[in-house]
Amino acid sequence: IKLRAQLDFTASTESAGLLANVISQNLVFDIKQDDQDIVIDRGSNDGVTVGAGVIDENGVIIGKIAEVRPTLSRVCLTTSRSCQLPATIQNDTRTIGLTEGDKGLTIKMTYIPQSEVINPGDTVITSGLGGEIPRGLLIGEVSQVNKLNNDIWQNVNIEPLFNRNSLTIVNVL
């Protein structure tokens, strides 16, 4: 079912990607224990490069390639502290910022000016700025806005729209 969904998504978006199997959610690579990373069965022999985006069968960005070996690659998930993505909140002003994982469970976007109006439920997508990841890939939904009156900045918590435990087949962009 997941393979069919990946193929259907790829065909509908004319996205040229590389399908890969998730082969481990454990420490195959030498990484920090609190990082949320997975390992896929594609590597430099297949043309995978560091920084490439990785999506699930629904087109939701789940992370980016953090390390590449000849036949394997490590994907840092968007919920990992080491995974930062340029993002846009789909509000009236199209607020731009940088997301990073928060405690392996959610995603946080920080340094948002207090003047920006953001609401729970706003959609967050990739901005396409500063990298190989295209604009418009779904990251998640704003679940909480953290705004203090005496602070210069506000930040938001973003609920990712994928389940780490159900990842079996992904698409490397």
As a whole number of angstroms, the C-alpha radius of gyration is 16 Å
What is the strand content? 35-45%
Average pLDDT score: 87
What is the helix fraction of residues, given as a range? Answer: under 10%
Q: Give the N-to-C terminal Cα separation.
A: 20 Å
Q: Return residue spans where pLDDT drops below 50 for at least 5 consecutive residues.
A: none
Tally of alpha and pi helices: 1
Order of helices and strands: HEEEEEEEEEEEE
**Mind describing the biggest β-sheet?**
6 strands, antiparallel, barrel
Sheet with most strands: strand arrangement? 1-2-5-4-3-12
Structural class: mainly beta
Provide the descriptors you would attach to this structure in a database record.
about 170 residues, mainly beta, 6-stranded antiparallel barrel, 6-stranded antiparallel beta barrel, 1 helix, about 45% strand, elongated
